[in-house]
Amino acid sequence: MDWLGFDRRRLGTGLVVFGLVGMLMAGVVAVALVLGAFAARDLDDRIAADQAKIAASLTRLSVTMESLATTTQNAGTTLETSSEALTQARDVLAETSTTLVSLSDALNIQILGNQPFANASERLASLARTVNSFQGKAEALALNLHQNSTDATLMTDQIRQLKEQVNELASRITGFDRIGEMVGLLLGGAVLGGLLTAWIAIAAAFAAWVGWRMRKRPAPSPAP
After folding, report:
1. By CB atoms within 10 Å of each CB, which of 36, 54, 174, 223 scores lowest?
2. CA dist 57 to 67, 159, 173, Å?
3. Fold classified for 2-216
4. Cβ neighbours of residue 160 under 8 Å, at least 6 residues apart?
5. How many CB atoms lie within 10 A of CB 67?
6. Using an 8 Å Cβ cutoff, are 128 and 101 in contact?
């Protein structure tokens, strides 16, 4: 028999299948909601504990970064002092080299056609060349130490800037006090989801029941 232009048994079968699928989906959602509710037990306390741990870790990181910045600053000061000392040594070596060259020239004299101080003059000249070489190395080393000191100062500033950012992040994490509201919204959403699931399950069960009745209802006898 047709009902509203559809075969009643086929329409009943469709309603039964639709209802069973709806109840199955509602059951899966209900199980997921129950598992989520168990997982959300003491969620606010656990999040607060993790929040405290993260803030403590960031605070320790800030202290470590300040110690690193202080160490780098001290190293930069030492490098700058060493550079200044080498610069002074370079000036002393330059004066020493000039003095040795003057002595070498002074000893390079002739007396009655002989050069009695020729050997000493040559040694002083060789020593002047060696001192001059040391002067160049001292100047190069002083420049390198000065550059390293500049880099250490720049690194110290960058480390302290990062430390300030870490402190700001730690303050934000510590000052975040809306964990209870977030957990409340989560639980409220779970409750609403449960009510919606129950509503869908009831509608699916009713559809399945109507379809089963339509399939089981005997067809009326034809009129004589």
Report:
1. 223
2. 15, 17, 11
3. Helix Hairpins (1.10.287)
4. 65, 66, 69
5. 11
6. yes
Contacts of 214 (CB under 8 A, 6+ apart): 3, 8, 9, 11, 12, 15
94/116 Cα distance (integer angstroms): 28
One-letter amino acid of 149: S
User: Which residues are CB-contacts of 19 (< 8 A; sequence separation ≥ 6)?
Assistant: 204, 205, 206, 207, 208, 209, 210, 211
Mean pLDDT by 10 residues, the chain (224 residues): 55 75 82 75 73 86 88 88 85 83 74 66 81 83 87 89 88 73 71 80 80 64 47
Q: Identify the pLDDT of residue 105.
A: 75
Write out the two tokens for 149.
Answer: 């000191």
Rounded distance between C-alpha atoms, residue 94 and residue 135, angstroms: 6
* Tokens read off for 135: 């002067």
Which two three-digit tokens encode residue 42?
């003491």
Dist CA 38 CA 95 (whole Å) = 85
